[in-house]
Design brief:
Blueprint lengths: L2 H8 L9 H12 L2 H17 L5 E7 L2 E6 L2 H8 L2 H14 L15 E4 L1
Parallel strand pairs: 2-3
Antiparallel strand pairs: 1-2
Helix pairs in contact: 3-5
Length: 116
């Protein structure tokens, strides 16, 4: 999509100044990439909060539940005792993340975690 098309969609004129944060918000909404971006931000937050990124084979979000497939049963057992704290820490990171869009209908904040 050319910049001219994006500009005309928003009704911007060349002489109007728009901040980068506002421009990014408009871009995410117009390109309809909020769900994919939110999913990626949640996966990144999982890796940062737990430190178990290298033991996580697969992770995806569905209906507010983060599903993680672990390669180590020992790591999975240790993390299972900390699920509530992990959910809170992930959601705190997402609240402070400027690229996370909590208004997205498909993927928003995490409600629970399922470890496989």
């Amino acid at each position: 999509m050319a910049f001219e098309d994006f500009k005309s969609m928003q009704g911007l004129r060349r002489r109007e100044a728009v901040g980068m944060d506002e421009l990014m918000e408009m871009f995410v909404k117009n390109m309809k990439i909020a769900s994919g971006l939110n999913s990626q931000r949640i996966a990144d937050a999982w890796d940062e909060v737990t430190g178990a990124g290298r033991y996580t084979l697969d992770k995806y979000v569905r209906n507010g539940v983060l599903y993680c497939t672990m390669s180590s049963s020992m790591i999975r057992d240790r993390l299972s005792f900390q699920k509530t704290a992990i959910v809170e820490q992930i959601n705190e990171r997402l609240k402070s993340d400027p690229l996370f869009t909590p208004e997205d209908k498909k993927i928003s904040f995490i409600k629970s975690i399922v470890l496989k």
